[in-house]
Amino acid sequence: MFSLPDTSRVWIYKADRFLTDDEAQGIQQKVDEFIPTWAAHGKKLYAEAKVIDNLWIVIAADESREGASGCSIDKIFRLVANLEKEYACSFTNRLILAYQSEGQIKLAPLTQIKELGINADTLIYDDTVQNLGDFKNRLKPAIQTWLKRSL
Fold first, then answer.
1. Measuring CA to CA, how many Å separate 119 from each of 31, 43, 103, 108, 142?
2. Is residue 124 classed as helix, strand or coil in its secondary structure?
3. Given this model, what pLDDT does residue 114 score?
4. For the segment 64-94, what is each residue's pLDDT rounded down to a tens digit?
5. d(Cα 67, Cα 50) in Å, to the nearest integer?
6. What's the rounded Cα separation, in Å, for the pair 150 and 26?
């Protein structure tokens, strides 16, 4: 999936709905165009970006080679804000939970987790991870994530 080291920093943006295949391909094209131009203080960042499961935009940067700066991170936010407008969805709504049920990825508002039967053992996708290695292992029982406070 990613060729960068597991220590690479990640930024994870989850859509508030599943994207169509055409939308996911369009977004992938836009992030593919963005990554070669992404720089911090004029220095190219060693980065990759992927649209995963028609739901997540994941941007990873190998900060051992060049660190992202505030300005370069702002460029990501602008890119995502433009994608939100173009595709009429939110990638920054942190009140949407992605979890696994019957082998499928499901989305739910955090306000409905009890009604949906989400409990300590429910596998959720932890979008708060900070590096690529943790991202690869982000599917965890809810009790092992930030969600444990809400159960």
1. 35, 45, 16, 13, 7
2. strand
3. 87
4. 999 999 999 999 999 999 999 999 999 999 9
5. 20
6. 36
Taking Cα atoms as reference points, which of 4, 16, 28 lies closest to residue 93? Answer: 16
**Structure confidence by residue, pLDDT tens digits, 20-55:** 999 999 999 999 999 999 999 999 999 999 999 999
Half-sphere exposure of 11 (CA within 13 A, CB side): 19
Per-residue tokens: 27? 């977004």
* More reliable by pLDDT, 52 or 146: 52
Helix axis angle, 21-34 to 70-87, nearest 10°: 150
Look up residue 91 and give its amino acid.
F
Instruction: Sort residue 41 into left (φ over 0), alpha (ψ -120 to 50) or beta.
Output: left
pLDDT band at 1 (very low <50, low <70, confident <90, very high): confident
80 CA to centre of own chain? 11
* One-character DSSP codes across 29-86: HHHHHHGGG-EETTEE--EEEEEETTTEEEEEE-TTTS---HHHHHHHHHHHHHHHHH
* Pairwise CA distance, residues 84 & 42, whole Å: 27
